[in-house]
Design goal:
Helices cover about 75% and strands about 0% of the residues. The protein has helices at about 1-10, 20-35, 45-65, 65-95, 100-105. The radius of gyration is 17 Å and the shape is globular.
């Protein structure tokens, strides 16, 4: 819901949507592109491996725990993908289909 909420906030408060808020959508699109391209060449997974290694190393060193590093990789993918998917879905429903806030979030807690 956080991605959809960002679209709703930007409609209520123009100018509040910053480039930083859009990055998770690009992360999701890039991740899916890497996964699709992996059918042609496994080298397409290199960017995902690189970012995973960065997250793993940073979290493991900061917390002195390899387990925490592994959890950081998993949670980073889940959080960024979830936010990105919510942002894309919210933008589609609210900006393209011109649905109301209630209609766009019909399956959520409203």
């Amino acid at each position: 819901h956080s991605g959809i909420a960002r679209i709703n906030l930007s409609l209520r408060h123009p100018g509040s949507l910053k480039p930083l808020h859009i990055l998770p959508a690009f992360f999701l699109a890039g991740s899916l592109a890497c996964l699709a391209a992996a059918a042609i060449s496994l080298w397409a997974l290199a960017p995902l491996g690189f970012v995973s290694l960065l997250w793993l190393t940073d979290a493991a060193l900061r917390n002195r725990s390899l387990w925490v590093g592994l959890l950081a990789v998993a949670t980073s993918f889940v959080q960024l993908s979830g936010y990105g998917a919510g942002l894309i879905a919210g933008a589609w429903r609210r900006l393209v289909l011109h649905r109301s806030e209630r209609q766009a979030n019909a399956t959520s807690f409203f």
